[in-house]
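Retro notes (design track)

What went well: tokenization of the new backbones is finally stable.
What didn't: we kept losing track of which sequence belonged to which structure.
Fix going forward: every design gets posted as structure first, then sequence, in one message. First example under the new rule, 381 residues:
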């Protein structure tokens, strides 16, 4: 079993297609083989400089007239190799990054919110958003860090306390930033855990998904046996993306085949219960068989956005499991690129394999709530 797991990890590593990020933030990207695409193996999340359409936002305080995007700080050599994932803490005080060098780094946010907005409005670009040296460097993983997840639990300073990381080394590690050493526990997996997610409303629970087609629900409560999952659910293919709804009652798991499984989190039994599944694919054409789910993001408790490796993002309703609207315009054939919303939930941003960041404005979009629509949105102009 261990030999098979290492083999799977090696296969996935071969399709992390972004070279080391250079100082000028340019990169070269190789295409995965058709075999690996069919297997739905993970591509790598990546950092690139902010760009929109064909208009670059350079690191030299250049302004994009279309979207008013600014590059205000660059941390050179933040990691010794490619960065796969970066996530802000719920309190907004920290940014966690991880990737190929197997080091989880946590950076202190120095300026945020209205202060930054006001300085940018005045076109003051001499900003220091992050310290150039991370506050923590956590070195327990033996291979690439694939995903991280922050818990909503906070310390007495109202700052984020717990964070999870999962890796090619078949481990999910729980870290407590109020302790020294910070590592609290290790959750071993028989196959590579591709993503991990804390429940945002019931923060003592988290879910890990892996390539063995298993969804595992865990508890970090000391009263429970941390070595055994609370709940185990099987899917029909390798699991590649996962997200909880904001209320913590719904869980969506994306598969390599382009299917999403929907589970309910049962608070009384503290287990997952299968509810339904959704095909995230075109009705016709070259991708009608479905492509890997690359990322899932909830808009609210009843709607979620699914990014797939056919360069599409689809908004679905939990109520009827039907597609509401489809977004396209970026390139995403291989990588694990998840979309994100702004604070108003009107703008959607997503990276792209052409090195750009694309933004869609869905604030004025009138979506029919009955049945599936063929409405398609292209990037914001």
């Amino acid at each position: 079993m261990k030999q098979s797991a290492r083999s799977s990890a090696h296969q996935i590593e071969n399709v992390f297609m972004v070279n080391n990020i250079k100082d000028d933030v340019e990169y070269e990207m190789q295409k995965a083989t058709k075999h690996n695409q069919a297997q739905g193996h993970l591509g790598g999340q990546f950092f690139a400089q902010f760009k929109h359409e064909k208009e670059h936002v350079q690191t030299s305080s250049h302004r994009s007239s279309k979207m008013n995007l600014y590059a205000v700080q660059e941390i050179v050599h933040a990691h010794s190799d490619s960065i796969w994932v970066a996530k802000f803490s719920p309190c907004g005080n920290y940014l966690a990054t991880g990737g190929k060098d197997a080091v989880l780094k946590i950076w202190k946010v120095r300026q945020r919110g209205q202060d930054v907005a006001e300085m940018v409005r005045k076109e003051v670009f001499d900003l220091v958003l992050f310290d150039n040296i991370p506050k923590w460097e956590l070195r327990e993983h033996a291979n690439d860090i694939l995903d991280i997840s922050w818990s909503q639990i906070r310390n007495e300073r109202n700052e984020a306390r717990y964070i999870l990381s999962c890796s090619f080394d078949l481990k999910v590690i729980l870290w407590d930033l109020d302790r020294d050493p910070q590592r609290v526990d290790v959750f071993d997996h028989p196959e590579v855990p591709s993503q991990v997610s804390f429940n945002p409303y019931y923060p003592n629970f988290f879910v890990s998904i892996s390539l063995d087609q298993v969804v595992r629900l865990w508890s970090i409560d000391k009263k429970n046996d941390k070595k055994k999952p609370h709940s185990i659910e099987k899917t029909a293919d390798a699991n590649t993306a996962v997200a909880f709804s904001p209320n913590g009652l719904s869980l969506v798991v994306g598969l390599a085949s382009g299917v999403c499984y929907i589970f309910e989190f049962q608070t009384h039994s503290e287990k997952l219960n299968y509810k339904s599944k959704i095909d995230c694919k075109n009705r016709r054409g070259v991708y009608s068989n479905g492509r890997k789910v690359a990322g899932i993001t909830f808009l609210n408790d009843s709607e979620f956005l699914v990014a797939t490796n056919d360069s599409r993002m689809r908004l679905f309703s939990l109520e009827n499991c039907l597609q509401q609207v489809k977004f396209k315009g970026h390139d995403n054939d291989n990588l694990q690129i998840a979309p994100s919303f702004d604070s108003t939930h009107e703008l959607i941003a997503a990276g792209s394999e052409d090195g750009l960041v694309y933004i869609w404005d869905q604030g004025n979009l009138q979506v029919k709530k009955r049945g599936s629509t063929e409405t398609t949105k292209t990037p914001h102009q």
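Added context from the reviewer: The longest strand covers residues 271-279.
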